[in-house]
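Q: What changes when fe (ii) ion is included in the input?
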Amino acid sequence: MPHYLKVGNVPHKRHVIHRDHDGSRLVEELFGQEGFSSGSALLYHRHSPSALVGIESVDIKTPEFHLDKPLTPRHLRTEMLKPVDDMALDRHELLGNADVILSWAETSQTSSLYRNASCDELVYVQDGAAKLETIFGTIAIRQGDYVVIPKGTTLRWCPDRTLKLLFIESRGHIRTPQRYLSKNGQFLEGSPYSERDLRTPESPLTVDDENVSVLVRHHSGISRHIYRHHPFDVLGWDGSLYPWALSIHDFEPIVGRIHQPPPVHQTFEGDGFVVCSFVPRLLDFDPDAVKIPYYHSNSDSDEVLFYSSGNFASRVGSGIGAGSISFHPTGFVHGPQPGSYESSVDKNSTDELAVMVDTFRPLAVAEAGRDISDQNYPWSWSKIT
Ligand SMILES: [Fe+2]
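A: The predicted holo structure follows.
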């Protein structure tokens, strides 16, 4: 995230003495990526952020992922997944590879304080509202938000209404596509979103508490760290690395006289995958335009599509609806279900809202993903209408 922000109370220079209004010296933390050779922020704590008083292991069931064997297109039905108590611990992992893990959580409970030390998190908010409390401050979260959380951010989710969340955990960092940015990092004219669409922490968040538990997700599982002081003790910070939110409803679609290719919908990228947003838009307006996608072999990608809301014109009769996930692995030519073309002929616009994740390495299917797979979906293109 390239844009510099300054929030709260920071000193006039880096790495100099900085004091609270009562004269006590604040503690500086450099929060940085890629060996401190990339984006970073400087945070000013009341207390040492390293004051551990306890370390415990946390037993969790490690999800098993299985290769998609035999190769099978899938429809995963997230409405079959049970709500969870603590999304920091209990997400339902569905699909994954070495670059990215897709999981799901529905909850109305405030999460534990946690820090993902292995991955950036990109969270799509299918439903609900929440306050996302972080060491950088609070962001108000609502339906349709993408929330970008840099690896290592300490936070907790405080739902105002029951949340349904699609988690995209990325080993590499989540980025805005480079082609949307000037060489200095400003969003270009023609980019489908810009600085004004981004929502960031607006003021510091401080909590006075002691012996506070923080769950740390890391490469070998989850650990519980207990800190002398609450991690939300930052009185000011500045820099270009922080959590932020972008509403899918602020993504401006690009349309054309004839069909536009999927990259016009790209919203984010990570190492080994891209994320695209399909939002309500005018359909192709040439009199002879075919308004639904062609059949396609995306021969370097596995395609995952999360159907958020609206009418999915290309999935007529497939059983797919809001909350569904389709998984179309490379090696399977896919496209509209029978009857889709006929139902699109008289339409001038679509109200579909969907999030696509294209991965460049094959995805494996977790047990929960297999359990919620619609066994009839692979045959949905063979129906006679
Ligand atoms: Fe596709």
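Observations recorded in class: The helical segments are 340-344, 367-371.
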